[in-house]
Design a protein that fits this description.
By secondary structure, the protein is α/β, with parallel strands linked by helices. The chain is 40% helix and 15% strand. The chain has two domains: 29-113, Rossmann fold; 139-261, NAD(P)-binding Rossmann-like Domain (Rossmann fold), CATH 3.40.50.720. It has helices spanning 13-29, 43-58, 74-86, 105-109, 123-130, 139-150, 170-179, 194-198, 244-247, 261-286, and strands spanning 8-9, 32-38, 61-67, 92-95, 159-163, 183-187, 203-206, 224-227, 231-232, 238-239, 253-254. The strands form three sheets. A six-stranded parallel sheet has the order 1-11-8-7-5-6. Strands 3-2-4 form a three-stranded parallel sheet, sandwiched between helices. The longest helix is centred in the last third of the chain and has 26 residues, at 261-286. The radius of gyration is 19 Å and the shape is globular. The N and C termini lie far apart (61 Å).
């Protein structure tokens, strides 16, 4: 296969804009409210939460941020999530990470009602997803699939190597890809000779949280590369898990960081919230 001198850029901005239009249409008919719970003083987290709140306003979603502070303990976080889950005016709940030392996301997220778990953080949501039952997929994992679809990358029968096995990206993404008839290999820190594994794949998804992990030697000629990494730099920028300069020598297509998976993830979080509100409204009308 002869490769182009410059790989195609799989931008997520147009797709995110289209998803926002769909969301705004739904919220014009059925109001939606999103609750974001924060328990950290991390500035990058604060920036991300502000971006979600601004994006929510633009599509007509009310966004409330509950800041519990970095000293919050597990019982306080769980009680807050349980109260929001019981609040009929709240349609979507996000538990933002990182969490205080000693608090695990999996344990805390069990307090989020599955129907309001718009980022698939509750382990029960992952279980339902794996079983093919109705649940909100983690937005980042879904964003990868939606982005590939948007750019016409066929998944059926393709070999996809997912680098990273987190419950918010790697594991749920594997299930979503299997549902689309892809052959999936999940790689992780104990994978022997990572480059040998990923170089056999048609599509490589980097979601390990390690800057520059994936280089040209990890890729087959013509591979499609999706970079999920969002690693902050000292100057306030972001870099992905892929060394874009190196990977460009072999990849046929590559997502940018920023501007690739990130915008789609945020748009889908809001889309999930709008759909949760619509589902709640339909259920209420059905019982009227």
């Amino acid at each position: 296969m002869r490769l182009p001198s410059v790989p195609s850029v799989l931008s997520g901005r147009d797709l995110a804009a289209a998803v926002r239009v769909e969301t705004a249409t739904e919220t014009a008919a059925v109001p939606a409210r999103l609750a974001v719970v924060v328990a950290t003083a991390d500035e990058s987290t604060a920036w991300y939460v502000r971006s979600i709140a601004k994006a929510a306003v633009k599509v007509g979603i009310t966004c409330d941020v509950t800041d519990l502070g970095p000293e919050a303990d597990a019982p306080t976080i769980r009680a807050t999530l349980a109260a929001l889950s019981a609040d009929p005016t709240v349609h979507g709940i996000i538990l933002q990470t990182p969490l205080p030392v000693g608090v695990t996301q999996q344990e805390a997220a069990l307090a989020i009602a599955v129907e309001k778990d718009v980022d698939g953080a509750n382990p029960l949501s992952l279980g339902r997803l794996a079983a093919g039952l109705t649940a909100h997929a983690p937005a980042t994992a879904e964003a990868v699939v939606r982005l590939l679809d948007h750019h016409g990358v066929d998944l059926a029968g393709r070999h996809v190597a997912v680098v990273g096995r987190s419950t918010v990206v790697g594991k749920p993404l594997a299930h979503l890809l299997l549902d689309r008839d892809a052959t999936v290999t999940v790689c992780h820190s104990r994978t022997t000779d990572l480059a040998a594994v990923t170089a056999r794949a048609d599509i490589v998804v980097a979601a390990a949280g390690r800057p520059g992990l994936i280089t040209a030697r990890h890729l087959a000629p013509g591979a499609v590369v999706v970079d999920v990494g969002t690693n902050p730099t000292p100057d306030g920028g972001l870099v992905g898990d892929v060394d874009a300069v190196s990977a460009s020598a072999r990849a046929s297509a590559l997502t940018p960081v920023p501007g690739g998976v990130g915008p789609v993830t945020t748009a889908l979080l809001l889309r999930h919230t709008a759909r949760a509100a619509a589902t709640t409204a339909a259920a209420s009308n059905g019982h009227a």
